[in-house]
Design goal:
By secondary structure, this protein is an alpha/beta fold. Helix content is 34%, strand content 15%. It contains ten helices and 14 strands. Bound molecules: 4'-deoxy-4'-aminopyridoxal-5'-phosphate.
Length: 365
């Protein structure tokens, strides 16, 4: 018989966990301060319950993946059924791999071929490596304010906190923190979003060294600032003119701003795209893919790009993706998301107006 658990406070749990984990948390972004760090008991729908029994409405939804709400019965049952009847990971292929990609391609028709990954970070790493392998070039242009995961070369950013607005000087590019080899800094060039001159300046200087431009079309990690359609078109044209690839990071926008992600919304298509978060409703699944001729650089000869990993396309991930994508495609989930999103904006706007708080909403309408 299981013993009833004694209820502990957030503060007590943090004090204990600090002996075992840096900051007392499993990853940096869960530490919100000594008084604010939460330890959850459970999640359901849009609600979180913490260890003290307090309920919260979670607008962040686990950094984004929980598109259908926490503990969606349909997705969870599909995963549990798969684990029970088939298993989890074997290092072999299954027919489900192809079925998920066929489903994904029916929503994102610009994608020809794909590979799976376990996180958004891994998907970006795979896409960038593939772009480098295909072009034989090393440099990548990153659009300022974008976030592409926690791996060394993507952990450089513009220091806008110490930059004077309107200054002629570009903000300094600084590392996220310690431990990043300075040599990884040289792999990227940074350009401000929606700045045509900066983009053409970099391409004029070193166009034949640029493997790819990587951007979040709607910067979910930077106040949802959005690329203009003209800028995306300029990116598309400039990449084509210089033989560089356009990588659109749809880890946040994929299956959210539209079934076909931001690319369907803008009508401008990437050579390679990364997906994660919403494709698995919280189960760790990700993918990258795009043009067949580009993806086919992945292979087993010495000239090919290597991609793989023990847990890639494990059956938990794949069955979650199949169930989630099926629901997003074949129910009114997407319309509901957009309708409720609009209602939340309206309510928040009324509250802010009532309290004379200046506000603006960013992101796609
Ligand atoms: N790209 C984007 C646009 C993201 O928002 C994130 C995560 N916030 C990542 C990549 C990295 O994804 P993950 O945390 O799954 O590694």
């Amino acid at each position: 018989m299981t013993q009833p658990r004694t209820r502990l406070t957030n503060a007590a749990l943090l004090e204990r966990s600090k002996h075992h984990m840096p900051l007392g948390v499993a990853e940096n972004y869960r530490y919100w301060g000594d008084k604010e760090t939460l330890f959850l008991e459970s999640m359901k729908g849009c609600r979180l319950t913490d260890c003290e029994g307090r309920q919260f409405v979670d607008f962040r939804l686990g950094y984004g993946p929980i598109i259908l709400g926490y503990r969606d019965e349909r997705v969870d049952s599909a995963v549990i059924e798969t684990i029970r009847s088939r298993g989890v990971t074997s290092g072999f292929s299954s027919q489900l791999d192809t079925e998920v990609i066929e489903l994904l391609k029916s929503m994102c028709p610009n994608v020809d071929k794909m590979r799976f990954a376990n996180s958004g970070t891994e998907a970006v790493m795979g896409a960038v490596r593939t772009a480098r392998g295909f072009t034989g070039r090393e440099k990548v242009i990153v659009v300022e304010g974008g976030f592409h995961g926690l791996y060394d070369e993507m952990m450089w950013r513009s220091d806008v906190e110490r930059w004077e607005v309107g200054s002629e000087q570009d903000p300094e590019i600084i590392p996220f923190g310690a431990g990043l080899p300075v040599s990884t800094r040289a792999l990227s060039e940074f350009v401000p979003l929606n700045d045509f001159e900066a983009l053409s300046g970099v391409f004029e200087r070193m166009g034949d060294e640029i493997a790819a431009v990587v951007l979040e079309p709607i910067m979910g990690n930077c106040g949802s600032i959005s690329a203009t359609p003209q800028y995306l078109q300029a990116l598309r044209d400039t990449c084509d003119a210089h033989g560089s690839l356009l990588i659109i990071d749809e880890v946040k926008t994929g299956f959210r701003v539209g079934l076909g992600g931001a690319q369907e919304f803008y009508g401008i298509y990437a050579d390679l795209t990364t997906y994660a978060k919403a494709m698995g409703n919280g189960y760790p699944v990700a993918a990258f893919g795009g043009r067949a001729d580009v993806m086919d650089v992945i292979g087993q000869t010495r000239q090919s790009v290597v991609h793989g990993g023990t847990y890639t396309a494990n059956l938990i991930a794949i069955s979650a993706a199949r169930a989630t994508l099926d629901i997003l495609k074949n129910t009114d989930a997407m319309e509901t998301t957009h309708r409720v999103g609009g209602q939340i904006r309206e309510v928040l706007s009324r509250v802010f107006d009532h309290h004379d708080i200046a506000h603006a909403f960013a992101g796609p309408d």
